[in-house]
Amino acid sequence: MVFYFYNMKNETTIFGIRAIIEAINSGKEIDKIFIQKGLKGELFQELEYAIRKAKINVSYVPIEKLNRLSKGNHQGAVAQISPVEFYEIENLVLSTIESGKTPLFLLLDQLSDVRNFGAILRTAECTGVSGVIIQKKGGAPVSGDTIKTSAGAVFKIPICKVDHIKDAVFYMQASGIKVIAATEKAQNLIYDISLNTPCAIIMGSEGRGINPSVLKVVDERAKLPILGDIQSLNVSVACGAFLYEAVRQRS
């Protein structure tokens, strides 16, 4: 039997191992799966196999966490289905180029905070970003908090999922789109970089920043000037400054 319920944050939640396996096999867009620590058995192994095959983000958590997510009717596993449909990066890039507009993409390298994610989506929609690309694993899900913080922008801006952000970098470059990393390790300020041509901006995670392996393959690096004693900005604030510099240059 498949169990579904809608919680107060507008997320669709599935609970029960068999139900989750059926959802994965039917192609449901699952953001994250929570599994009870220490769970064993053949059905559990089948679930783990399905998760690995579909490359779904999974966390092993105490039973108390599952009880809060499903009011106790979880049978050891809870899955959260994304409230939005994700785009294929190839289709999105092609349609953007064919539209005649100068592409401006945003790549998020394992951003973990859902409120930062939502705030960035809101700013991206306001600044005319062509699409947002996230990684399938390790990043914040499109959750109820994301929807609320984005003020509904999550439903208006195309979002793509890729296996690794480097996959998106290579595809952008192959499509004639310059990739710029927002990092304090840069020599140039963002104001010294041309954003008038097709480009994609990468923002890193809150703690680690952009993965070093990703930094090695970008076209350019840029930073914001920091004039105070605190040497970093909140990632959503920094992202807003980068995106509005693109708007300024293109206006």
| Percentage of residues in helical conformation | 25-40%
Order of helices and strands: EEHEHEHEHEHEHEHEEHEH
Total number of strands: 11
In the CATH hierarchy, what is the architecture of the largest domain at level 2?
A: 3-Layer(aba) Sandwich
Oligomer: single chain
Please outline the major beta sheet.
6 strands, parallel
Query: With helices defined by DSSP (H or I, 4 residues minimum), what is the helix count?
Result: 9
**Sheet/helix structural class:** alpha/beta
CATH fold name of the largest domain: Alpha/beta knot
- Give the strand line-up of the largest sheet: 8-7-6-10-9-11
Please characterize this protein's 3D structure.
The chain is α/β, with parallel strands linked by helices and 251 residues long. The chain folds into 2 domains: 3-81, 60s Ribosomal Protein L30, Chain: A; 89-250, SPOUT methyltransferase, trefoil knot domain (Alpha/beta knot, 3-Layer(aba) Sandwich). It is 35% helix and 21% strand. The chain is built from 9 helices and 11 strands. The protein has a 6-stranded parallel β-sheet, sandwiched between helices. A 5-stranded mixed β-sheet has the order 1-2-5-3-4, with helices on both faces. Strand 7 (131-135), helix 6 (144-149) and strand 8 form a beta-alpha-beta unit. Mean pLDDT is 89; it is low at 1-10.
Helix/strand layout:
Blueprint: E1 3-6, E2 12-15, H1 17-25, E3 30-36, H2 42-54, E4 57-61, H3 63-70, E5 77-81, H4 89-98, E6 104-108, H5 114-126, E7 131-135, H6 144-149, E8 159-162, H7 165-174, E9 178-182, E10 199-203, H8 212-215, E11 220-222, H9 235-250
Parallel strand pairs: 3-4, 6-7, 6-10, 7-8, 9-10, 9-11
Antiparallel strand pairs: 1-2, 2-5, 3-5
